[in-house]
Structures are given as structure tokens and as C-alpha cells.
Amino acid sequence: MTINKIANGSDLTIALDGRLDTTTAPQLDDELKTSLSGVKKLEIDLGKLEYISSAGLRVLLSAQKVMNKQGEMVVRNVSEEIKEIFEVTGFVDILTIE
Predict the structure, then answer these.
(1) Per the confidence metrics, is the pTM higher than 0.85?
(2) Contacts (Cβ under 8 Å, ≥6 apart) of 27
(3) Distance between CA 8 and CA 19 in Å, rounded?
(4) Stretch 62-81: mean pLDDT, rounded?
(5) Is 22 helix (H, G, I), strand (E, B) or coil?
(6) ∠ CA(88), CA(35), CA(27), 5° rounding?
(7) How does DSSP classify residue 51?
(8) Cys bridge to 1: 18, 31, 64, 72, which one at CB 3.0-4.6 A?
(9) How does 27-66 read in b/e, with b if 16+ C-beta sit within 10 Å?
(10) How far apart (Å, rounded) are the C-alpha atoms in residues 50 and 73?
């Protein structure tokens, strides 16, 4: 999985490319833990994400909890396959998906 970060003041965009699974979720988790300080708006772009596992969902949930305290988080460009996973797991009610 590739993580592309674009910081613009207190806005941060993270674009994911590949698979967010048990192997790659710790990489994203570490990246978010070091990057979220001072961020008011976090945008996660899943346009090139092929797959997300429960480990990946946990990382998104963790990021959402942090951003609930300091700003907002938006998930964009969700494929039909990933959207279905969000619906089945109830993440459509937790995340802001655009």
C-alpha cells in the first residue's frame, strides 16, 4: 500500500493506494499518529484503495476518534466494494463519507 500525504496548513489529505489490511494497517496507523497533531480537517481519499480489512477499519475508527476531538474527518472517493464493507460493518454511521 502507498500512502500519499498532502498537508495544507491545518488541512491534511491522505490518499491510499492498494490494500489496507493486517499487513499495511500498522503503517497507516503510525503515519496518522505522527501526522494528526494540529490538524483541523483530515481528508482520507480511498479512490485507489482496492480492499480494506477489519484491521484497516480499526485504523479509520481510531483516526475518527482523534478528529472528533480536534476537528473533522471526511472519507472521499469510496468504491462500491469498500462502501459495501462500510455499510455491512455500520461504518456509514460513524464516518462522514462523500
Answers:
(1) yes
(2) 1, 3
(3) 26
(4) 97
(5) coil
(6) 55
(7) E
(8) 18
(9) ebbeebeebbeebebbbbbbeebeebeebbbebbebbbeb
(10) 21
